[in-house]
Amino acid sequence: MTSATTAHSVVEPSATTRRFAGSLVILYAIITMIPLVWIMLTAFKSPDDAISYPPKVMFKPSLEGFCNLFTTRSRQTPEFIRSLGPPQGMCDEIARSRNMVVAGPSNYVPRFINSLIIAFGSTVLAVALGTLSAYGFSRFRVPLKDDLLFFILSTRMMPPIAVAIPIYLMYRTVGLSDTRLGMILLYTSVNVSLAVWLLKGFIDEIPREYEEAAMIDGYTRFQAFVKVVLPQATTGIAATAIFCLIFAWNEYAFAVLLTSGNAQTAPPFIPIIIGEGGQDWPAVAAGTTLFLVPIVVFTVLLRKHLLRGITFGAVRK
Amino acid sequence: MNELSASSRITYRAVMVRPGVARRIRGLSDKTLAWLFITPTILLLLAINIFPLLWTIYLSFTNYRANRANVPTIWLGADWYRSILTDPDIWAAMQVTAHFVIWTVLIETVLGFGLAYLIDKKFRGHGMWTTIILLPMMLSPAVVGNFWTFLYQPQIGLFNYVVAFFTGRAASSFQMLGDVTLSPWAIVIVDAWMWTPYVMLICLAGLRSIPDYIYEAAEVDRATKWRQFWSITLPMALPFIMLAVLFRGIENFKMFDMVNLLTGGGPGSTTEVASITLKRAAFESWRTGYSSAFAIILFVTVFGLANIYVKALNRVKSR
């Protein structure tokens, strides 16, 4: 966010202006954070506190939401529960206080693992393909270069549902429906367009002279690419990878239409976490919180490159 | 800048020559290498984007239904296109989409530009607050849609409580998601919450691209701040604002995940944006041919917008 500014008294805003602008921005930031903070608070509420009116800001923290997120429970008679031995662990204890016993683990962990595998798998593939293509487009005379680049970008413009119809049919034919591999390939194809565009921007900024000097020293073009260009492009590659990761992590439309169990990721799963009589809000909030934390971390890491990422490299500061 | 400072640290290592490999790669001309590098990406996109697209085009001319694969496929010609373009339900969905796109883009542009303008005053700690403001746009739209249904709950939701607190109405007297007049605004509010930072970030880049000396010259000429804003700030940031508007326009035209979880298109079809109509036709009524035709129509529309976008992008770049 910092840019090299040359301070001149004439254009510098006055202290009052600054304070006024600052307070408005901070006010907006606080208002915009309330929904997020509220969800994170709800994750630590008991079901009764979560649905109380008026909404409770102060409450006794409880891990019941997390327990309900990770387990499935079944309702039992008090006699049956008394006949059991001592409760095993905190979650069992909470469940028993509500006349229930823990029946087994929920599907949250497998869905979360699917999200991780699919997000990382597609990111690695997209960045690898993207780096090669971006170098190709950046350094070589490719016939129809602009058309190819526009073609690559335009694949990203399609509405996901429109793509999902034929993908659904195609995956059903070749046996890729509801498989992680199928989702990895699909997300790779969506992300590769972003990767090519972003990385081309980053590689364009590396002076050609470096490779040329290396090649005069006896490197082949390929060696120059591996030993000179790649190390130079590390920052760009890392930023691109995080963008791909975030897309695959957040994606919902393809996931909900093309997966049902085996390869289902967390976004389509979180909304269908239900308890007895409707949505179990503390559990949903707990699942949401765990799911959002990595994104918050990545956003902070990425803040210098966000602008490039969201504009496909069109705006570079 | 990172790139430049890193470049000074380049050290040439001795070339490790593995004769066989080296000779083989050295033998590759730049042209071959270029194609080797580019083809995998193109092949992947052909397999997972273009081939399915061609298949959709074919299906859009037939009566094929994905849930009845054994029924013989009949060629229908342009029947689906004709029936879609004259279907009042489709036009209703297009109107809902237009309402959503126009209002979200308008609100996000005004708020986003305003915020960018204020942040550009570089008050203390603006970097940290900017990062905080940016958070919502990085989140999963589906998860966001889902947790806003909680905030919009009529009795227990925080949103209703806050509105009730400031207006004095009962918190259970209105339903953001269940009311035909309020629900189109409910989705606009969530989208604006999520994507205002996006417009803000692009506008901020625009404001920062304006060189100081222009303002200095204006000061010398005794132009008022008001005049400076309309004659310098706004025109010079305009290409960036346009870029943000086009990006948001295209994205919101395709909007599916957030709205699907927030309202699912309801109540009735008051928030049924085009993508939700498409999903209902394709994956609930299984009218594959019909929905393929609608998908092609949507795609052509987005593609048209994309073309305009690339032109605008080139204009921004050439500055």
Sheet having the most strands of chain B: none
Annotated CATH homologous superfamily of chain B? MetI-like
**Main beta sheet of chain A:** 2 strands, antiparallel
Low-pLDDT sequence parts of chain B: 1-20
The two chains with the largest interface, and their residue counts, are: A-B, 125 and 118 residues
Kindly report how far apart the N and C termini of chain A lie: 9 Å
Number of strands of chain B: 0
DSSP summary: helix tally of chain B: 14
Second-tier CATH architecture of chain B? Orthogonal Bundle
What's the number of domains of chain B?
A: 1
The fold-level CATH name of the largest domain in chain A is: MetI-like fold
CATH homolog superfamily of the largest domain in chain A: MetI-like
Query: Which consecutive residue ranges of chain A, at least 5 long each, have pLDDT under 50?
Result: 1-8
What's the N-to-C terminus distance of chain B? 20 Å
Helix-and-strand structural type of chain A: mainly alpha
Q: Work out the helix count of chain A.
A: 16
* Beta-strand percentage range of chain A: under 5%
Helix-strand pattern of chain A: HHHEHHEHHHHHHHHHEEHH
Percent helix among the residues of chain B?
over 70%
What does this structure look like?
The complex is a heterodimer of chains A (317) and B (319). Chain A has a two-stranded antiparallel sheet. In chain A, strands 3-4 form a two-stranded antiparallel sheet. By secondary structure, chain A is mostly helical. In chain A, a hairpin with a 2-residue loop joins strand 3 and strand 4. In chain A, helix 6 (108-139) packs parallel to helix 9 and helix 7 (145-157) packs across helix 9 (180-204). Chain A contains 16 helices and four strands. Chain B has 319 residues and is mainly alpha-helical. Chain B has one domain (79-318): MetI-like fold (Orthogonal Bundle), CATH 1.10.3720. Chain B has 14 helices and no strands. Chain B has helices at residues 2-7, 19-26, 30-59, 79-85, 88-119, 126-138, 141-151, 158-167, 183-208, 212-220, 225-253, 257-262, 274-283, 288-317. Residues 1-20 of chain B have low confidence and may be disordered. Classes of the chains: A mainly alpha (317), B mainly alpha (319). At the A-B interface, helix 1, helix 6, helix 7, helix 8 and helix 9 of A face helix 1, helix 2, helix 3, helix 5 and helix 6 of B.
